[in-house]
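Before drawing any conclusions, I looked closely at one protein, both as residues and as discrete backbone shape codes, quoted below without any editing:
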Amino acid sequence: MNKASGSHYVMSDELVNSGEVEHCWLVGPFPEHQPFCDYLFYFAYHFANNVHVVVKSITEKQKVSQRYPFAHIHLGARVSFSAVVVSETGRVKANQFFIVFKDADWVMAKSVGMTPLPIEKMLVNAELLQTVAFQPSSISANSLTQKPVKPRQYLPVSHNKVAIMGPESAGKSTLALALAQQLKLPLVNEYARLWLSYQDDVGGYEDIALIAKVQQAFEQTVSAQSEIALFDTGPMTTQVWSQMLFGKVPEWLVKQVQQDCYALVLLVAPDIPWHFDPQRCQPALETRERFFQLCETLLGQLAISYQVISGADRFEQAKQALITKFSCISC
């Protein structure tokens, strides 16, 4: 992968202060697997106020327009992408995002000065996604400065979302992957780890806003395409990290967390040895225990159903919690 190493991308004040992203771009060719293609487009829809799509033929333009009527579609070959962007925006702004889901996207994002937004490694068990059903007349195309109203079927659902939460080095990602593989559930990986792996430092307060925004878009997208969906961390965890690292939390993120809800949260205890990782910063057990306590306090304030997962049999505890919560899950 031609990642943009050695760079740190500056987020717009609008994203940090209000959680709003104005423009993002998708460039074909797009996946043949229809549910995964839906996943890409609806992630973009939930992430940005304006979704720009570049296609190479009239036939592809008609197909995309019919299935994704919220998109602003531009006809142009990949080699003329820079000209397409400039003609539509007047100039390229660094706070516009280029959604990366294939190798060639890295080069294109850098060529026009956009911020690449990698999502290619985020989803486990993509084959389990369901096609998004909608009425073609339920959304109409809009101007470049106005986002269409989301119809009812696109609104985020909460009855099927399971989040895995807790301090670093507690085995959350290992647990999430094991549950997804054995119970055959779609899993959205932790975005903070993926995003920061492409930066030249450990990240700052502005990265909190982007990570939370991306997580929110993933939750809205994947929960709408799944009977049950697993999320390795989420906006709640990002709020706790923001408070611990920076002593403050974006106001819009606090409001988002208050409004969101989950069917179940698996709260993983810090009762296994800490292992070094360049992205980790809590080697002291007391620090991780404080993080755990902040998570538990937040869950109590939000009145979200949760179960503490601890000890050597944490996988069995978590699996049983899911089987008990969802009658459709079988071993």
Observations:
- DSSP finds twelve helices and eleven strands in the chain.
- Residues 13-151 form a domain with the Rossmann fold fold (CATH 3.40.50).
- The chain has two domains: 13-151, 156-325.
